[in-house]
Design a protein that fits this description.
- The chain has about 260 residues and is an all-alpha fold.
- It has a domain of about 150 residues.
- It has eleven helices and no strands.
Length: about 260
């Protein structure tokens, strides 16, 4: 996809903002009258304002660099093709300016890093076994277009993300979509895959690895948890609203 960062912003920013505005009323409807046991918790204070400023500057620099890189690509000028390299370089540079680099390294949740690496390796092995490739062929045997294509990709993405987790699923499913005929000219298909795999984490706890990380933090730090059924109860409605908004926008703008 040409200039992916700007393309995503162009087509997905508005439906994303709409979904963010619709989310609070849905959550409030489920938890109306619920109160935090023992009152609200005290907000954590910044431990190092200087490092916080450096982190904010690093984040701003990464976003600005992605925008500039896309603009260079659109003008046919030299640019970085592997855009994932940009935030990596910015993060490495930010690390050099923090007050205590060793303390920053100690603060990294290495268990989470290993979890992600292991997950990618395991899911690639599962995909290579042929089971989920067979499911993909069964659910989406060929390329389609229009609203049917949008809903088909969304359904497959939402469903298989619950089994493979969304990030490794996308990493593997891209090649499958190319194989059945979705090419560079099918921007709507790639945008559909992007949005549907992202909101897969709204449907169930297993849809995104980040859900498991947050749940683990909730249990270890606050001694509370969220059941799979309760998450899915709220998540099903949230996901349904998300799909309706995103699908309508993509169809109207690119369908």
């Amino acid at each position: 996809m040409e200039a992916p960062f700007l393309t995503f912003v162009k087509y997905l920013a508005i439906p994303t903002l709409i979904n963010l505005l619709l989310l609070p009323p849905i959550i409030m409807a489920f938890y109306r009258g619920a109160a935090e046991p023992g009152g609200g918790r005290e907000r954590p204070q910044l431990r190092d304002r200087r490092d916080a400023v450096i982190a904010a500057a690093g984040l701003s620099t990464a976003v600005a660099a992605l925008v500039v890189n896309d603009l260079l690509e659109l003008r046919g000028l030299p640019h970085v093709q592997n855009v994932g390299f940009i935030p990596f370089v910015v993060a490495a540079g930010t690390y050099l300016f923090v007050r205590d680099p060793r303390e920053a390294l100690r603060g990294v949740e290495w268990g989470t890093v290993i979890f992600f690496i292991s997950m990618f390796i395991t899911m690639y092995g599962v995909w290579r076994s042929g089971l989920f490739y067979w499911l993909a062929r069964l659910l989406m045997p060929s390329a389609t277009s229009g609203m049917v294509g949008i809903l088909q990709i969304s359904a497959v993405s939402l469903g298989l993300s619950q089994l493979l987790s969304n990030v490794p699923f996308v990493n593997l499913f891209i090649e499958y979509m190319r194989g059945i005929g979705y090419g560079p000219g099918s921007a709507w298909a790639w945008l559909t895959l992007a949005y549907s795999s992202t909101i897969a984490g709204n449907l169930t706890l297993l849809g995104a690895a980040s859900n498991i990380i947050v749940l683990e933090s909730l249990e270890s730090r606050h001694g509370r948890t969220i059941s799979f059924a309760r998450f899915a109860e709220v998540g099903a409605l949230v996901t349904l609203v998300n799909v309706a908004v995103y699908s309508a926008f993509i169809y109207l703008m690119l369908g």
